[in-house]
Amino acid sequence: MVERGERPPKPGYVDAVDAALDAGGVLRVLIPDVAEKHHPAWAEEYVKLQAEALALHSYSTHFLHGVLQTEEYARAVFRSVRPSMEDDEIERSVQARVATQALLTRKPACRMTFVLEEPVLKRKMGGQTVWEGELRNLLKLSELHNLQLQVMPLARETHAGMDGPMTLLETPEHHTIGYVAGQQGSYFLTEPDDISIMSHRYGTIRSQALDAEVSRAFIQRLLAGEA
After folding, report:
1. Domain with 171 in it: what CATH number?
2. Could you list the residue range(s) of the whole structural domain that residue 3 is in?
3. Fewer CB atoms inside 10 Å of the end CB: C or N, the chain?
């Protein structure tokens, strides 16, 4: 069905076929043309910008950024969406989300920082097994040289993130773009004054969060049932 153009290939399929046929990358260049669009129209531009970003900085308040999600966790997130999604729509969305994680190992490496609210880590999205798998995934990702995870503890008495989640992307042209997700869609911020405010706010959030080593230890304690 893929060969006849009746079904879009799953992530990795074209790479495998290219290698099996010793095509030398000829088939891989067609990936953007044959891949099905799984993201809402308002998210397509963000997905493209993220894939090309020199740097990604994200502050999460309700659930983990897509780049950090295991397949099982992503499935649980989409199953939580209301109105409910159809099963096939959920699976397409999960595969699309997993595909964005190529950013983790892309060359040249993307510089990434993530600040996670403590309740995001404690929320057992998908149940105990999925939750534990996600925590192990975060510990593994925290070992990447180009990625830093920080936890914003509930005990913090002053908090610069009261306006909610945010993402900052640095483009290949070294421009910084702000991205804010909302209930019925999302929007970009590009004006220098807006970016200055967001950058300052994100820097303050990072300074208020636990550092990377303490955050990693916090996740380990959660996994061990000690936090």
Report:
1. 3.30.870.10
2. 1-36
3. N
Percent of the chain that is helix, strand, coil (3-state, to 5): 45, 15, 40
Cα–Cα distance measured from residue 95 to residue 79, given in angstroms and rounded to the nearest whole number: 14
**pTM of the entire predicted model:** 0.81
Q: How far is C-alpha 182 from the geometric centre of its chain's CA atoms?
A: 16
Residues 30 and 108 in one domain: no
Query: Residue-wise pLDDT tens for the chain (227 aa)?
Result: 556 544 556 556 777 877 887 777 765 555 555 555 455 555 778 899 999 999 999 999 999 999 999 999 999 999 999 999 999 999 999 999 999 999 999 999 999 999 999 999 999 999 999 999 999 999 999 999 999 999 999 999 999 999 999 999 999 999 999 999 888 778 999 999 999 999 999 999 999 999 999 999 999 999 999 87
For residue 211, tell me if it sits in a domain.
yes
* 49 within a domain of the structure (yes/no): yes
Encoded tokens for 31? 């990936």
